[in-house]
Amino acid sequence: MERFMQVVNQVLRSHKAPKLHEFGIHYPLDASRGDLIDIWVAFAIAFKVSKLELNFSTNQVPIWVCSFKNYSFPLDFFDKTKRVEPYLVQLDRVFSVCAPPLNVDNGFECLRELILKSVDLTDEQFETILSSCTFLEFLHVLYSSRLVNVKHAVPHMKLKSLEMYRCFQLKKLEIFAPNLVSFKYLGPKINISVKDAKQLVHACMRSNWETWEFSRTNSLGLPNMQRGDFVFGQFAAYLPQIEHLVMDASSFGRTKVLDNGPLLYNLRHLSLSSLNFADGPFGILGCYEMVASFVKVSPFLHRLDFELYPLQDPELRRIAVSPHNYLKEVLVSGFSGNKLVVDLIMVVFDFAIELEKIEISTAYLGDPSKCTISLKPDDDFLVRKSIEQLHGRMPAKAQLYILDDGL
Fold first, then answer.
1. Same domain assignment for residues 130 and 275
2. What are all long-range contacts of 87-94, with beta carbons under 8 Å and residues at least 24 apart?
């Protein structure tokens, strides 16, 4: 760790340009190194950074490397009376790095992308970041354990993409971003309000495993979303404009909203996941029911992704699925070769009469936060045998692509 910090400090000393396009730290540092991280962030701000990434996640390293107390952004960075000047004084004194003068009104005027992984934010800090970074276009937050009731009521006119992953204490999220194009969420089934997002075309609404879900009422006294309401209740107004929708079987709930709602003419790409331990094998059956419903109301659907977690083999009860003329591509990740998954793919072969390509991967690719560790199937022979079986049933125009080496 000491060696890593020395390297970062040396990089800071060697920087000569007046502006900094991108500054990123990818190492499992925690709050005990906060003073040094503060100086690094102040350096990036002073040099008008466009993309700032702090990735202190421990996913790819042994768990003993660092503690679990996350670094937290100091609000001084956003205080017009304090600002970052004290940190820049330390930067000059300790590292002999002289920073350029800051814009007094807004030191964050150049920041366009902010990625925070294993960085703790309070509700106040989250709101302050959006209020201060008025030109911010992309915000990604992963593993922030102190967010509870996030609200940004003033319209943020530049924000185009918001990603909130695995903030497990979060109970409510309200965002007002009229030009938001992409919203991605993975976490508990909370109350979410995305206001007046008329440009929204990419939506990912993934919930936790059911065994981690909260009760019907959370600590704020608000009802937690139950199954179908999580997506179809909170995002019903946006569904007709969505082009790419990502959701899981636990959020379907056999809802009739698709049957009673408008046709989804804009939906081109649908990604469905069955990462749901409480429902066990019926997670995949839920995906089957979702496909049957979505195919009926999405006449121009082009690509269908299944992200399937290895499960047991219940029987697949056939549902009538109307023929679809526009579905061209299918991806199946988490393919283990079991009978249920093979039967599900066969169903797709039956109704996707213009299918051109199917991709299969044994790795699970359904975690938008990219934190899930891929598990190798126990039985390679079963995988190969199942792939041979699929080859024999493929539509005439379709090509099969295996994304794994060695299969």
1. no
2. 87/38, 87/39, 87/41, 87/42, 88/42, 88/43, 88/46, 90/39, 91/12, 91/39, 91/42, 91/43, 91/46, 94/39
